[in-house]
Amino acid sequence: MAMEKDPICGMNVDPRTARFKGEKSGRTYYFCSKSCMDAFLGGGEEGVGEEGRHRGDGEPESGKEEGLPQKGPPKRMFRIKGMHCASCAITIENNLKKLPDTRASVNYASEKAYVEGPATDARVMARVKEAGYEAIPASDRPGEMVLEISGMDSMHCVGIVESSLKRVHGVSEVKVNLATGKARVAFDPARAHASDLVKAVKAVGYGAMASSEKRDEHAEEQRAEIRSYLSRIAVSFFFAIPLLYLSMGMLVGLPVPEFKPFELGLLELALATPVIVAGRGFYTRGFKSLANLTPNMDSLVAIGTGAAYVYSVYGVVSAYYGASPEYYFEVSALLIAFILLGKYLESAAKGRTSEAIKKLIGRQAKTATVVHHGVETEIPIEEVAIGDIVIVKPGQKIPVDGTVTEGRSTVDESMITGESVPVGKGPGDAVIGATMNKTGAFRFKAEKIGADTMLAQIVRMVEEAQGSKAPIQALADRVSAYFVPAVVGIALVSFLAWLFLAGKPFPFALTIFISVLIIACPCALGLATPTAVMMGTEKGAENGILIKTAEALQMAGSVGTVVFDKTGTLTKGEPSVPDVATVAGGEENDALDYAAAIEKNSEHPLGEAIVRFAAEKGIRPEAVNEFSSITGKGIKAFYRNKLVHLGNRALMDSEGIPYRAYEDKTSGLEGEGKTVMFLAVDRKVISLIAVADTLKEHSKEAVAELGRLGIETAMITGDNERTAKAIASQVGIKTVLAQVLPGEKAEKVKSLQEGGKRKVAMVGDGINDAPALTQADVGIAIGSGTDVAIESGGIVLVKDDLRDVVKAIRLSKYTMGKIRQNLFWAFFYNLIGIPVAAGALFPFTGGLLNPVVAGAAMAFSSVSVVTNTLTMKGFKL
User: Fold this and answer.
1) Does the reported pTM lie above 0.85?
2) Residue 231 vs residues 236, 237, 275, 284, 298: alpha-carbon distances, Å
């Protein structure tokens, strides 16, 4: 029996062994996988395979199909093929939003769709296909990889490999291609690992290794698209230039041979037709969109150039019968040639907007040297497992994230943090995958691999930010949704008005009709915001500033107040004990013994400082009983049969312990910026313990720079007001929110927002300050280190440097400036160009806009927007 082709992926399928098949329009189709079957049948037809009878939702009657996903992941990325203008993106997005409980965002600039909701990949792909485009699940999702398989000779081998991979616990989908020798596997990273997949294939007698082909597909498609544009441009101009010479040469004094009207028409037809064929994509896509009632830019080009071509063909026919018509072949040919040139330049420029993230990905190591059973073995990076001991030699890239176990070196982390000075590493220090080892050699334990590495998190975060939409884009989206129908309407009205109301001849009205259709450019509107967002987020990532959403990027530039958490944000979060003041005849060592005993069970930084200080004094306290922590106040416990309290004034007040006799001493210490805790034994204060936290190196500089930008600053802390004001004065902050319990921080931020301030940003650690970061208009999580996947906060700062807060705000202001420039030129171009093309200047100048000039202007309008965005590359933070 002959092989059948899978109608979705084109893979050859043997009908005798096919596990998935279905009927559509009376014909039986065979599929390599369930996803392809569902994508083709749309989940609404029945497919029968070895897995059982499938209902319309793709689930077997007997229950859930083993090894296949029942729901798509919460947020997924798809590459979109066939988008050629902003209207295309709006069409796809609106179609995807019709899926139940689905949120979708389509980025024309990056040619990607981001989908959240319960719809399966197959349903998403089918919905996009219904709109006339193609969606492909991104190959760089977490839990998706490509294996290179050796030893396969037939479809029987394909079946064996596929079955072996599907038996691996956690694998959800497998596609094996005999022609390329590759297997694409989707799996749950929490349940399966790359090494499990390799072992499974080797166990059935075939060779397997992780392929380096991961993120190159889209880049290769972009290169193929550019090559295609170049070849079509060459064909177009090769035939269009002689056509231009024949039709316009005499106007500039060039010698043009004389032809009879019919002969000239035939010659121009012969020259114009190859150009139309070179630009056939505009017609197939444009008329298909018209048929779907979702016209786009291709529709405008198809109608405009098609009208000129058809009218000219009609002229050739009429010339055969003796008429002397006007031909517009050169208009249609030159328009196609210029538009193809513009699309080529636009495609090339769009590719450059994502260079930074591609550079990040390209810096990842391809292999790792691991120690297995005492033997050093070089393996693909995908096969490194958590717990492996990895060897890194001088000049090598660190393959994955982990902790140094042996050896010392310096590491260049600039590509992750933006910090140019190499960082010293020794036992116990964290190392980041893809950074460069400099001088020494060391071993480290692999702790984060694959999608969990810092590099993977950064790339994913940047890509998701690029897939989100800034609020400022809403206007452009609304205009783009109605743009093409409005332009077609304006073109028809102009055509009819000049033809019937003004009494102009048909060629005059046709020229206006074509010019209006061709000069209109929704692409410039569609590219204005997303290209700038792409550049802004990548510029941030280069400098250790990770912007999670386009909204956060926009909001940061309009911030009027920045609220800093004190501990760990303005200060180092490493407090020390400079003073232990005993009262009522107490002894310092006894006080430290009591304090350290009950603080041993506390995880608060102040408590850790006391325990550390006591240990330095040689004090080793015993265990306590009935320990309890009172949030925002302190702690209490029984120690050596005595009730011990350690905390602030609020604790003393709530427990009824007198302390006011020591207020002068307490005030003096607090005036120095120290936090004072009262130690009471059996309800009698015996000591005042002062704890001080030092300011971070650049705190004062960052606050001063914010002031120069006209931004107010505030500090929020649980400290009492006197201590808080003392610390705030050291960094130059005037607004102090003191004695704020952890659960009250969000309310304080809310009160600032309601107090008539402009946008409020909150800067904190991303964990303890999560509610406040979420409440703020912009939440900025600082000093995340290798854990950049912090849920709260729209902006994550990799380095523990407050100057990056200023950089993030400056980057936002600069990016928004570029977006406004782009939107201005996009709107201005269309607002001026369309009336001129409609003949608005004819009563005053007596001339019309040549459709060829209109086409050239349209082609270069979107290029100018992208080029303006590319100037962001030179911006220095």
Assistant:
1) no
2) 9, 10, 11, 19, 19
DSSP string, 545-578: EEE--HHHHHHHTTEEEEEEEIIIIIB-S--EEE
- In this structure, what token pair is assigned to residue 480? 């783009």
The whole-angstrom separation of Cα 375 and Cα 670 is 59
Strand partners, 500: none
Question: What are the pLDDT digits (tens) for 805-846?
Answer: 999 999 999 999 999 999 998 888 888 999 999 999 999 998
The predicted pLDDT at position 61 comes to: 33
Q: How far is CA 651 from CA 15, 599, 658, 683, in A?
A: 78, 15, 11, 11
Do 447 and 428 meet the contact criterion of CB atoms below 8 Å apart? no
Share of the chain above pLDDT 70, in %: 88
Selected residue with higher pLDDT from 383 and 585: 383
- State the DSSP string of 778-842: EEEE---TT----SS-SEEESSS-THHHHHHHHHHHHHHHHHHHHHHHHHHHHHHHHHHHTTTTH
On whether the CB atoms of residues 630 and 593 are closer than 8 A, the answer is no
The predicted structure's pLDDT at residue 26: 64
Q: Is the pLDDT of residue 1 over 60?
A: no
Structure tokens belonging to residue 186: 């989707």
Quote the CA–CA distance of 317 and 266 in Å, as a whole number: 9
Task: Calculate Rg over the CA atoms of the chain.
Answer: 34
Give yes or no for a contact between 406 and 443, defined as CB atoms under 8 angstroms apart.
yes
The residue with tokens 């505009």 is: 282
pLDDT band per the 50, 70, 90 thresholds, residue 51: very low
Integer Cα distance of 468 and 551 in angstroms:
8
- Please provide residue 647's backbone torsions phi and psi, each rounded to the nearest 5 degrees: 180, -160
pLDDT at 644 over 90: yes
Cα distances (angstroms) measured from residue 221 to each of 79, 162, 180, 347, 626: 11, 27, 17, 11, 66
Q: What does the alpha-carbon distance between residue 456 and residue 477 come to, in Å, rounded to a whole number?
A: 31
- Spot the catalytic one: 140, 388, 565, 804: 565
Decide if pLDDT at 494 tops 70.
yes
Are 385 and 197 in contact by the 8 Å Cβ rule? The answer is no
Dist CA 438 CA 396 (whole Å): 8
**Spatial distance between the Cα atoms of 124 and 320, rounded to a whole number of angstroms:** 53
DSSP annotation of 63: S
Give exposure, 616-645, as e/b (b: 16+ Cβ within 10 Å).
eeebebeebeebebeebbbbbbebeeeebb
Q: Catalytic site residue 565? A: yes
**Strands 735-737, 712-716: parallel, antiparallel or unpaired by DSSP?**
parallel
Selection from 302-311, 666-675, 793-802 with the highest mean pLDDT: 302-311
Question: Would you say 299 and 85 are in contact if contact means Cβ atoms under 8 Å apart?
Answer: no
Residue 119: CB atoms within 10 Å:
22
Q: How far apart are CA 515 and CA 842, in angstroms?
A: 13
DSSP classification of residue 60? B
Give just the sign of the alpha carbon dihedral 690, 695, 696, 702.
positive
Q: Are 132 and 87 in contact (CB under 8 A)?
A: no
| Mean model confidence pLDDT for the chain | 84
User: Quick one: DSSP state of residue 674?
Assistant: -
Give the span between the Cα atoms of 1 and 14, in whole angstroms.
8
Name the nearest CA neighbour of 539 among 804, 876, 864, 111: 876
